[in-house]
Amino acid sequence: MAYSDKVIDHYSNPKNVGTLDKNSKNVGTGLVGAPECGDVMRLQIEVDDATGIIKDAKFKTFGCGSAIASSSLATEWLKGKTVEDAAKIDNMDIVEELSLPPVKIHCSVLAEDAIRAAINDYRTKNGMEAMVFDEKRVH
Amino acid sequence: MLKLPIYLDNNATTPVDPRVLETMLPYFTKHFGNAASRNHPFGWEAEEAVDYAREQVAKLIGCDPKEVIFTSGATESDNLALKGVFEMYASKGNHIITATTEHKAVLDTCKHIEKLGGEVTYLDVKEDGLLDLAQLEAAIKPTTILIAIMYANNEIGVVQPIKEISAIAKRHGVLFFTDGTQAVGKIPVDVIKDGIDLLAFSAHKMYGPKGVGALYVRRKGPRVKVTAQIDGGGHERGMRSGTLNVPGIVGFGKACELCRLEMEEETKRISALRDKLENALTQLEESYVNGNRESRLPHVSNISFKYVEGEGLMMGFNKNIAVSSGSACTSASLEPSYVLKALGLGDDLAHSSLRFGLSRFTTEEEIDYTINAVKETVLKLRDMSPLWEMHKEGIDLTTVEWAHH
């Protein structure tokens, strides 16, 4: 299967690989997937207290090229967004941007799950209620 | 000069040796006759060429030319052996013994036989991929008609103890069929010394053309018969009808001859390259060779690089190096290799595996290039892997509660 140019670009030059301090109050961490399934994503956001804007985002991913590209793209999109707007990122936006084929849609779902898990980690750390999301299950 | 891309997926298929192609070419345009045309020189020429190729094939596996049935490839040979024996020996019994690490051509044929009223025992293998012989013997019942165990595995290259298996089969009066697709032409296979009753193999895994293979069917001690699965003009002693693929068969014969003559020298060179590759790559932390390293084909290496995913790993160099992975990220099921899982590997290690298959044409330069490219990519992806980070922090990943999706 041939990858799209955008997937190859994110894979070859991933944006925002790294680790934020998960114990910091401003940092939300989402760890989703499982090694047995062949993909694990860890996505972290750092939120500016005053503005509620995500000022930094980092990822580390174990998975195929599409999983790596999906998480790299997600961190790019997260930066500069408010937490509320970040919660609106839809996996199909990622599918479209990266031209993912049907067998790789689960990679985008995983990225969406990771964003939401990171947001809720941040919210619960700061005394807010976790947001409730519709379940999206492709497999 | 190093020429890219490098082909290291020779368990999937091999290039046709130029010497093989050269032998085949006249049989497309000049000597194009039907080997079954008995009444004119075109037919005689074709028949003669097929007879000669049959001898070349027979010589490689140490049998009589009359015992070679030409087919379209190993999948057809597997089907003919299993279904043919099941039908032919129905009055004797309906039980077949095989193993979980067999090729799909055997496993799916067995599934089909089960639907037809057959009973099939699928034996597990040990952690190193080898069969437990005591378990095999214990599985034999009065209704057992066939033991079907592959000579060498296509994913890990592990070579089964064929002589011991055939001895067990003989002791119990059960026929022994082996899928030799990966082994024939690469290591010495002798149907007499090995005690094989039926042997399936294919040309395109040994530098011959695609679309041609053979089934060896023993004629003496015991005389084995299979019910034809393709009916028609009664070719191949009635066991496989259909006009013979003369150019393909000619190429198959030549490929067998070259393997027989060059195997010994070639094996030394290829296994040295394989070992160089394997030793260099297993210097990486947390990398493991899958399957028994002693009883193994000389040209295969299957390695798991823990904490990186196989498909993602291949993407780092698959423009320049062709290998295959036990990860099944592209398949709809998302299930990793059933062979690696049968060795007791966790899904995570199965997802992290690469199979390297070398060939007659592999050069040292190509191996050096591959070592560097794979190492570099593994290190790069580990820097990007949350699992590697957790491992380095001393977290036991088996204790983590993963959100299964």
What would your notes on this structure say?
The complex is a heterodimer of chains A (139) and B (405). Chain A is α+β, with helices and mostly antiparallel strands and 139 residues long. Chain A is built from five helices and three strands, in the order αβββαααα. In chain A, strands 1-2-3 form a three-stranded antiparallel β-sheet. The mean pLDDT of chain A is 92. Chain B has 405 residues and is α/β, with parallel strands linked by helices. Chain B contains 14 helices and 13 strands. Chain B has helices at 18-24, 26-29, 41-61, 74-88, 104-115, 133-139, 162-171, 191-194, 246-281, 310-315, 338-342, 347-351, 364-383, 386-392; strands spanning 6-7, 68-71, 95-99, 119-123, 144-148, 175-179, 198-202, 213-217, 287-289, 300-305, 321-322, 324-325, 353-357. In chain B, the strands form three sheets. Chain B has a seven-stranded mixed β-sheet, sandwiched between helices. In chain B, strand 3 (95-99), helix 5 and strand 4 form a beta-alpha-beta unit. In chain B, helix 3 packs parallel to helix 9 (246-281), helix 4 runs parallel beside helix 5 and helix 9 (246-281) packs across helix 13. Chain B is globular. The N and C termini of chain B lie far apart (47 Å). The A-B interface holds A 1, 3, 8, 11, 14, 17, 19, 31-42, 60-65, 67-68, 103, 106, 109-110, 113, 117, 137, 139 and B 307-309, 311-312, 315-316, 327-332, 334, 336, 346-348, 351, 383-389, 397, 402-405.
